[in-house]
Structure formats: C-alpha cells, structure tokens
Amino acid sequence: MKKETFINGPYITLGQLLKEESVVSSGGQAKWYLRENSVSVNDQPDDRRGKKLYPGDSVSVPDVGEFVIRSKQDN
Questions:
Q1: What pTM does this model have?
Q2: For position 74, what pLDDT does the model report?
Q3: d(Cα 43, Cα 41) in Å, to the nearest integer?
Q4: Which of 3, 4, 28, 50 shows a CA-CA span of 20 to 30 A to 58?
Q5: Residue 75 to residue 68: CA distance in whole angstroms
Q6: Which residues of 53-74 are buried (b: 16+ CB within 10 A; e: fewer)?
Q7: What is the CATH number of domain 2-74?
Q8: Which element (helix H / strand E) includes 67?
C-alpha cells in the first residue's frame, strides 16, 4: 500500500522525505542511507538526497514502503 505524503511547497527533497517519514533522523544519515539502499523514484533508482520530488512522484524505500507525494493545496 502506498502512503501519501503531503507537502506545503512546490517540492520536497528526497532527503527531507526520508527525514519526515522517520526513515532517517538527519541529512547526513540520509546521504549514507541512500548509498547503502536501493531507493527508487518513479521506478528509477536514485541516490541523490537533493533530488526534488513533486506532487505525483512516487518513492519506493526497501523494507519501509512506498510514498506518493501530494500537495496540501490540492485538498
């Protein structure tokens, strides 16, 4: 099941998403986590913590789950 993650601005970075969803507790940990785990953005592997995620993007994190980015303004 995919979990919806709501954002206030136009985008959120992959590192911020990992922190917000409690996968990691800091940006430094996000960098390490992305090096060690195969995270996918829109079904493509991505290890950039600064990768911008926009509403409609989906992120798959191994052993954690799948997240879909949504805008709070669309609610």
A1: 0.90
A2: 60
A3: 5
A4: 28
A5: 14
A6: bebebebbbeeeeebebeeeee
A7: 3.10.290.10
A8: strand 65-71
- The domain locations on the chain are 2-74
3-state SS string for 31-64? HHHHHHCCCEECCEECCCCCCEECCCCEEEECCC
Residue with the two structure tokens 């953005």: 41
Tens of pLDDT along the chain (75 residues) come to 689 999 999 999 999 999 999 999 988 899 999 999 999 999 999 999 999 999 999 999 999 999 999 998 765
Contact 55, 70 (CB under 8 A): yes
